[in-house]
Amino acid sequence: MNAKRSDKIATGILYGIAGIIILILASLILYILARGLPHINWQFLTQPSKSFEPGGGIGIQLFNSFYLLLITMIISVPISLGAGIYLSEYAKKNRLTDIIRTAIEVLSSLPSVVVGLFGFLVFVIQADLGFSIISGALALTFFNLPLLTRNVEESLNAVHFTQREAGLALGLSRWETVTKIVIPEALPGILTGVILGAGRIFGEAAALIYTAGQSAPALDFTNWNPLSISSPLNIFRQAETLAVHIWKVNSEGNMPDGAQVSAGASAVLIIAVLLFNFLARFLGKRIHKKMTSA
Fold first, then answer.
1. What is the CATH number of domain 40-293?
2. CA distance linking residue 216 with residue 284, whole number of Å
3. Binning pLDDT at 50, 70 and 90, where does residue 18 land?
């Protein structure tokens, strides 16, 4: 009787703690949305920002955020996928793999400002790429790669070993077993980790202040030549992202309606991250059903 009562008390305490955490997070999200949603409209989402006068938008910063995210994921996802497959399916348990996993754990806990300073020294100065989208993308690759690699490895390890044995028993090679059986089974977890990593990148500011820059030059959206300075696709131009813009608006104070712009941009940022999470769950389930039924 005492054991059952203790179990109920402990369970109740855990549920209470979880409820408090959820309440705090929900309150924070609702507060940001309540402050920001009234300032969001089509003009705010598409017009460029303005300094020293009201009425500016976040159009260029929003485009820069998605474009830099795309470049970063193009670089980091294939590398992390290959590293995760190697560590899960091919690497032997020895001192070298222990060192690699320890390095991944250490790198995944680095503050983003340290990654930003590293990117500034290596890519902006030494590689002479300057403040640019490619410098920011390379820095964020180092920032995101450890988490993506660990997510891929854990997703693959979660696939039961009997599925690997079944593939080998059917005459498939080890690589065919990995690509045709293990990866499709682990794909929902991998995809969820990739989308969560994308949300983390989308909301990153500290690393990009030192690499992608703090200015948003005017873009010509009729010019899609990636070598042109005014082209949106030019990866060597400066690109102030949405998160950096929020920090800049609040730190410089050169906008008469800075509080409204900051609130609206914060709400857009929260909505985008939530959409990333919902999209990850939806696509993960759909792809898993399609690939397992094929």
1. 1.10.3720.10
2. 35
3. very high
The answer for residues whose C-beta is within 8 angstroms of residue 292's C-beta and 6 or more apart is 184, 185
DSSP, res 5: H
CA atoms of 77 and 79, how far apart (whole Å): 5
pTM of the model: 0.86
Tell me what the mean pLDDT of segment 9-18 comes to.
91
> CA-to-CA distance for 69 and 64, rounded, in angstroms?
8
**Which whole number is the average pLDDT over 241-249?**
89
C-alpha–C-alpha distance, residues 22 and 8, integer Å:
21
- Domain map (residue ranges) of the chain: 40-293
Rounded to the nearest integer, the mean pLDDT of the chain is 86
Question: Per-residue b/e over 12-36, b at no fewer than 16 CB within 10 Å?
Answer: eeeeeeeeeeeeeeeeeeeebbebb
Amino acid at 233: L
- The first and second tokens of residue 57, run together, are 């938008």
pLDDT tens profile 33-75? 999 999 888 888 888 888 777 777 888 899 999 999 999 999 9
Instruction: Compute how many other C-beta atoms are within 10 angstroms of the C-beta atom of residue 222.
Output: 8
- Report the amino acid identity of residue 234: N
Cα(46)–Cα(219) distance, integer angstroms = 12
